Amino acid sequence: MFAVILRILNFGLQNFWRNIWLSVVTVTVISLSLFSVSALGVLTVLSNQALSKLEEKIDIAVYLKPELKDEQIQVVKNDATTISGVKSIDLVTPEQALVSFREREKDNPLIAESLLLLGNNPLGASLIIKASSQEGYQNILKELQTNRFMQYIQDTHLDDYSRVISSVQNITGKIKNMAGIVSLLFILITLLMVFNTIRINIYTHREEIGIMRLVGASSWFIRAPFWVESVIYALLATLVTAVIFFPLLSFIQPYVAEFFNGFSFNLVEYFKDRSWWFFGAQFIGAVLLNILASTIAMRKYLKV
Amino acid sequence: MALIDFRNISKFYPGGIVALKDVNLSINEGEFVSIVGQSGTGKTTLIKLLIAEEPASEGRIVVGGWDISNIKSREVPLLRKQIGVVFQDFKLLPRKTVYENVAFALEVSGALPKTVHSIVPQLLKIVGLENKTDRFPRELSGGEQQRVVIARALAHRPKILVADEPTGNLDSINTKEIIDLLRKINEFGTTVILVTHNREVVNDLKKRVVVMDKGRVASDQHKGRYLL
Ligand SMILES: Nc1ncnc2c1ncn2[C@@H]1O[C@H](COP(=O)(O)OP(=O)(O)OP(=O)(O)O)[C@@H](O)[C@H]1O
Ligand SMILES: [Mg+2]
Fold this sequence. Notes:
Oligomer: heterodimer
Helix content of chain A: over 70%
Bound molecules: adenosine-5'-triphosphate, magnesium ion
Radius of gyration of chain B: 17 Å
Mean pLDDT of chain A: 86
Number of strands of chain B: 10
Helix content of chain B: 25-40%
Radius of gyration of chain A: 32 Å
Shape of chain B: globular
């Protein structure tokens, strides 16, 4: 059995070498489609990252009335936790609020002076509320405006990034659509290319195939080398794509960092950590695609 | 029971072509049968039906007790291993040596390397090419090339050897050598079916002769001569 498998692999390799330039072109075309799929992957990762960072930034600041006692603040906080759609609530005590206020206004001597004059802390506590989804904020705001809460609240403020988010979604959506169409196009071209390559290789090997049939080779033995050949194409194309992919990623990394000013996100590391998965999936996809194409070609041109 | 049995065989091709019409033919194990007849009388068609390259339109074909009239395509390789085939156009692989061409038949049917190494030299010895194993087909004479084809046809030790005009491209000396080789193979016990146009060959053989005419068996004689 082992000898037979070795022989089939050998025949597959011979198919590959026999029309080497055709093989090179085939691998190039498959690489292009894998590359466009990879680019689509990068775009998806980038836009998801950008959106999740933006979403992290959204919160509702609820400024409570300064005269509330600590127990009352706790009650309000516990009450707010029960509003549906709330993910987390952080309490900023009056003391913390004062510290950060001073920090912010430290270059303004007038304010420092007036604070000193006041003698006690004029600031109240505040609650920083995050919703579990982007759509939850409006609902939470509405809930906060009911009587239950209004009596304790001085002011609410929603840091709203939804416009930014939707425009980011819009742009990346369009880019992803484009990349998707390009990928699909390349996948289609790959199918045709592999189909045609196998067809030509069947033609090149028509004498061998004729003899094989005459001497009683089983049909899977005649077909298997063409499948081996398809897998070789997929393997080489995946390797080529991976080899080009990482240097290119390193090249665009600085621009990405600049664009997402402030987020520390390393594309290269991200894809290095997932390279087995990322390229393994592409390899399997390419193998399935090529086997489909070569099987169709054999159905049509290899009468065994 | 006969080794090969054609019963009421007809073969029609599209366009109203009648290649074979109601052929009955029995061939016993160990026989040497020559099939002769004018061009286009269905000799090659008969061979194609025998190796299941084409299905019969009517009738029944039995080979070694196996009714192959409705053979499944995945069973064809099994039949082909029992029937060695030699055609006029040699069909050797030009990039393979003599040894490799013969080995190819065994390799593609899944033989172990050990088996290949032991059988191929034996086959080349039978056809008298043991000293030319590393030559390429273009470095051989026509007769030698045909002997390689015969060696390859014998690779699976078939019960039947079919040769369709094996000497069609050869001069009389090479022809005689090939026919002597077929005779030798027949003496080893292999049933040989020879399709030929060559009157001399048939008359020298003094074996059974089946004459085909317009798709029918016109005569069938033991120790026959090429009439017509
Ligand atoms: N694939 C085919 N399609 C249509 N007609 C065919 C086909 N093969 C053979 N024929 C016809 O069937 C008839 C018998 O052909 P066959 O090849 O069996 O003749 P033959 O006796 O071998 O002739 P030759 O001595 O010239 O080789 C011929 O009329 C031929 O034209
Ligand atoms: Mg013929």
